[in-house]
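About this split. The held-out portion is used to measure sequence recovery: a designer receives only the C-alpha cells and must propose an amino acid at every position. Recovery is the fraction of positions where the proposal matches the reference. Here is one held-out target exactly as it appears in the evaluation file.
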C-alpha cells in the first residue's frame, strides 16, 4: 500500500474502519458463502446474553421460530441438512425446562469475540509500518 493510500485510510475515523474490519472477518468465516448479517447479529446477542434461549432471539429480533432455528443451527456445530456449521455457539437443553434450548459461546466463539475486541480497539496508526513499501 502506498503512503497516499495509507493517509486516505487514516482520514477515516478509526472506530468505523475497525468495525468494517471485524465485519469482514466475520463474513469470511464460511468458505462457501459470506456469513449473513442476521447470523452476525445473533452471534453477538448470544455473546452478550450468555445462556439465552432461542425464544429470546425470536423476541429480540422479531423473527420466526424457523429463522431463529436456521440461524442458530448455522452458528452451531451442525447446519441444515447435516452440513458443518460455524461452531461458534452451543445449543443445550435447559435443565429446568427441556423444551427450551439455551445458547452459549463455544471456545471458538469466545476466541472470535476476543479477536473482534482487539481489532475494534486497535489504532489504525499502528499499521503504518506494515503498509510502507
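Reference sequence for scoring:
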Amino acid at each position: 500500500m502506498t503512503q497516499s493510500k495509507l493517509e486516505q485510510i487514516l482520514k477515516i475515523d478509526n472506530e468505523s474502519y475497525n468495525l468494517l474490519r471485524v465485519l469482514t472477518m466475520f463474513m469470511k468465516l464460511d468458505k462457501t458463502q459470506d456469513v449473513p448479517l442476521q447470523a452476525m447479529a445473533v452471534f453477538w446477542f448470544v455473546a452478550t446474553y450468555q445462556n439465552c434461549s432461542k425464544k429470546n432471539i425470536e423476541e429480540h429480533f422479531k423473527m420466526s421460530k424457523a429463522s431463529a432455528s436456521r440461524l442458530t443451527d448455522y452458528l452451531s456445530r451442525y447446519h441444515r441438512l447435516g452440513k458443518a456449521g460455524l461452531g461458534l455457539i452451543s445449543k443445550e437443553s435447559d435443565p429446568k425446562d427441556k423444551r427450551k434450548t439455551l445458547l452459549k459461546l463455544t471456545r471458538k466463539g469466545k476466541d472470535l469475540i476476543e479477536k473482534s475486541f482487539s481489532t475494534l480497539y486497535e489504532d489504525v496508526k499502528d499499521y503504518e509500518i506494515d503498509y510502507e513499501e
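Annotator remark: The beta strands are 52-53, 89-93, 101-105.
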